[in-house]
Structures are given as structure tokens and as C-alpha cells.
Amino acid sequence: MKVLVATRNAGKLAELRRMLADGPVEVVGLADVPEFPDAPETGATFAENALAKARDAATAIGLPSVADDSGLAVDALNGMPGVLSARWAGRHGDDEANLKLLLGQLADVPDERMGAAFVCAAALVVPGGLETVVHGEWTGRIVREPRGSGGFGYDPIFVPDGEQRTSAELSPQEKDAASHRGRALRALIPHLRDLT
């Protein structure tokens, strides 16, 4: 059975495909289906945004669709950038500008208050039927200098609890096993199996 993963983020699609590769479904991305208009991410929560993206994809393409919304919640910034993570510096997907702005905002914050968590909501929408939302969280801390070349987004400045390496220094397999997105997707797998 085919499941559409509704994302245009190449890093995120590769991550999702790796995690679902051993599952009961064939994963297709937006590049594999006819184009349809993207809904703006206007939800106040990760769950609202994930559901909206999955609903749009399921309605437009007619396949069960998985979408996620995720971001970084920094303790010293009262959980921000949160749902605004990808466009924190004003332009969607400008990782370098987002990192620079976030580190600038944290410049005067003491190291012991640099706690943060990556948060993910993943939604599965079956056309005309089931809607499921699951969550994953990956706690850690922010470091002041980016390190590592793997991953994307805020990975180079996020050190997970129990680690000395940033998320961008972990192997793809290590990241998949521990990450917020990995946790959310693993929670979705039983729901995907129920479809087959």
C-alpha cells in the first residue's frame, strides 16, 4: 500500500523514508504525485499544522497521507521558536539565519538555562476516514557554536540529553532511533499497519 509523506523538505523526507522503509507501506513523496496547492501553516500548535497538511494531501491525492510539523522549543524563550521554527528569522527554511538569530537571542542566557526540546506532531489522514495524531519529544540543550554537518535546521546547536555530540554529529541511524520525529513516526507505525 502507498502512503504519501506530505513534505517538500528533502532532509525531512529522507529521514521519514529511512524510518518507514521496513514498514508495511511504500512511501511516496510530493515529487511522486501531481502538484496541489500547499496550505499555509497557520495553526497555533504542531498538531494543527500536521493535521492540516495531511488532510490537504489526502484530499488532493486520494492516498493515506502522513505529515508532520516539528520545531525547537527553547526553555529560556518560553518555548519559542516553537511552531515558528522554520521561519524564525522571517524567511521559511533559512537555516543559517534561524540559527544566527536564535544564538543571538540566547547570548546572555547562562549555560544552565539553555535547556530545549525538539517537538514533533505527526498526523495520518486516510481519505474519508481515520485521522490520527501522535507526538514525540527529544530533550537536550543548546550549545553556542554549531557543530556537525548532518541533519538540518537546528541540529548543529542541539545536544540531546546523555550526549556530548550535537544532533548534527550523530549518524542518521542514531538520530532516527532517538529523535522527536523518530519517536512520533514509530508511534504511527501501528496505525499504518492497521491500514494494510
TrEMBL record:
Superkingdom, taxonomy of origin: Bacteria
Catalytic activity: ITP + H2O = IMP + diphosphate + H(+); XTP + H2O = XMP + diphosphate + H(+); dITP + H2O = dIMP + diphosphate + H(+)
Binding site for substrate: T7, R8, N9, A10, G11, K12, S70, F152, G153, Y154, D155, K175, H180, R181
Active site positions, chain numbering: D69
Cofactor: Mg(2+)
Transmembrane segments annotated in the record for this chain: none
EC number: 3.6.1.66
Note on how the cofactor is bound: Binds 1 Mg(2+) ion per subunit.
Classification via InterPro entries: dITP/XTP_pyrophosphatase, ITPase-like_fam, RdgB/HAM1
One Pfam family of this chain: Ham1p_like
Protein name: dITP/XTP pyrophosphatase
Lineage of producing organism: Bacteria, Bacillati, Actinomycetota, Actinomycetes, Pseudonocardiales
Keyword tags: Hydrolase, Magnesium, Metal-binding, Nucleotide metabolism, Nucleotide-binding
Chain sites annotated for binding Mg(2+): D69
Record-linked CDD domains: HAM1
Quaternary structure (record): Homodimer.
EC class: hydrolase
